[in-house]
Amino acid sequence: MVCQEEPLVSQISELYEKISSLESLKPSKDVNMLFTQLVLACIPPNPIDVTKLCHQIQDMRSNLIRLCGEAEGLLEKHYSTILGSYDNPLHNLDIFPYFSNYLKLSLLEYNILTQNTSHVPKRIAFVGSGPLPLTSLVLALNHLPDTRFDNYDIDSSANEMAARLVEPDPDLSARMKFHTKDVMSVGKEELGEYDVVFLAALVGMSKEEKVKFIHHLAKNMAPGSTLMVRSAHGARAFLYPVVDPDDLCGFEVLSTFHPTDEVVNSVILARKTVDHTSPIYSIEWEQNHTHNFSSLRMQSCKCLEIQPFNPLNHGNIIGELASSGHQ
User: Fold this and answer.
1) Which tens digit of pLDDT belongs to each residue from 9-27?
2) CATH topology of domain 1-327
3) What does the pLDDT read at residue 285?
4) Burial class (CB in 10 A: 0-12, 13-18, 19+), 187
5) Cα angle vertex 205, ends 27, 69, to 5°?
6) pLDDT number for residue 208
7) Partners of 226 in beta bridges
8) Assuming Cys at both sites, which of 68, 97, 158, 254 could form a disulfide with 131, CB separation 3.0 to 4.6 Å?
9) For residue 267, what are the β-bridge partners?
10) Is the pTM of this model over 0.85?
11) Residue 46 burial class via C-beta count within 10 angstroms: exposed 0-12, middle 13-18, buried 19 and up
12) Rounded to an integer, what is the distance from CA 210 to the centroid of its chain?
């Protein structure tokens, strides 16, 4: 088991101690500095296998992911509030410090989707959209001008903030809706209407939570529809939960992509199986399934791509992060 002797683990552990001692994770100079250091530590390709971390570091990693999720939510609320004060919020999305990353990630996901499906989706659901639903916004504005988007979030205030961003735009406000619901309570009548469901990286911040969300979707999505899941690879697994192909019970994995530039999240595209003999989620399956933070297994995917690391792209994130609104 790997513990403190791994230099990267030691570095991340030190940052975790500093982050966890902060009085608040709201945007500030100290919060910006520490999360900048954390992201830059995790971005470069690293052969670390999180399955071999000792229990102490596993616990630290779980706590760190939750802290990252809280900070990300507060950052999005901060910028959604600012954007909501503009007459045309959608014309000013680039004030968000990670906007260029969302442009790249959304283009990546759009390309993966179009390469693996035969038709343009009529309806998309985004689960865990938050107060600043940039993926939905970028896809709707740049790539899917005729598609309807339903955004689900359990936080009513987040949905209210997000709705204010699209309200001034007649076209987008007609195509984009926000639902305050726990997706675990959404059944086949709703989920079965979507061609594509996106599952945000921070919906389910532990392996067990993530698996339950995925297999609720497996039980309720329409056969042949597609699921886009965000995951993490290598050291980036200290920032976001890892989803394994084995976790996608009831789905056929079509493509897995691990970026190595400043786009942090891996992307997995899977199709809801139409074979009624395929395994679906059940209590028995959950009890027999090993939730062990296992790494992505290449043989489980028809297509697994790892993008070459670009040190120039890596450098770009420093400027983007330094220019963020954490003042």
Assistant:
1) 999 999 999 999 999 999 9
2) Rossmann fold (3.40.50)
3) 45
4) exposed
5) 5
6) 87
7) 196, 271
8) 158
9) 230, 257
10) no
11) middle
12) 11
